[in-house]
């Protein structure tokens, strides 16, 4: 794997970067004293790389403001969901023309009220694998379970006039095991009723990019980021890798 490969590179006396084979090798000191952008071919040793654990290399990137943020862990999401449970449901927002609603009360001590809104197409419910649903009052375990069966799941809460997505610290959309996040700085979330424009299409695909666009959310992309420190005896150069 990549981690063991990097360790082997550190143990070797020299790491050869083979790109630009038409160029002769350049000392790092020369590169450090040059102005960018230029292309070089170097012969150097990999001294260190960060992060040490590969899972820490995964970040969220906004192509609009170019920000990099950490991927929130499950505890953050669970905490936000717990806060949304306190919000009272608005029954006037149930069973609208473009979605059907089902509600029930959990049998645990808290007796949470959960509402699931199934988006319809041509006034009909679709097959689970083609269905987008919205859930109010659900906890992490319940939402992940639904995401495995239905095409898309959007955690929501009630307002006076419409449903809305939760705090953008949480994923605004789940599709299978993938969680989709929006940029807090660049997004201007719209009411959930904006989704009715997709439901009205001849064949709604419920693609995350389209959902994000109609909801006014700037979609964050998962990126792989690493920092390498290269040395050759004349200087040390930090190299950064960023890839989708």
UniProtKB/TrEMBL annotation:
<dbReference type="GO" id="GO:0000783">
    <property type="term" value="C:nuclear telomere cap complex"/>
</dbReference>
<dbReference type="InterPro" id="IPR048953">
    <property type="entry name" value="POT1_C_insert"/>
</dbReference>
<dbReference type="Pfam" id="PF21375">
    <property type="entry name" value="POT1_C_insert"/>
</dbReference>
<dbReference type="GO" id="GO:0032210">
    <property type="term" value="P:regulation of telomere maintenance via telomerase"/>
</dbReference>
<dbReference type="GO" id="GO:0010521">
    <property type="term" value="F:telomerase inhibitor activity"/>
</dbReference>
<dbReference type="InterPro" id="IPR028389">
    <property type="entry name" value="POT1"/>
</dbReference>
<dbReference type="GO" id="GO:0016233">
    <property type="term" value="P:telomere capping"/>
</dbReference>
<protein>
    <submittedName>
        <fullName>POTE1 protein</fullName>
    </submittedName>
</protein>
<feature type="domain" description="Protection of telomeres protein 1 C-terminal insertion">
    <location>
        <begin position="75"/>
        <end position="218"/>
    </location>
</feature>
<dbReference type="GO" id="GO:0098505">
    <property type="term" value="F:G-rich strand telomeric DNA binding"/>
</dbReference>
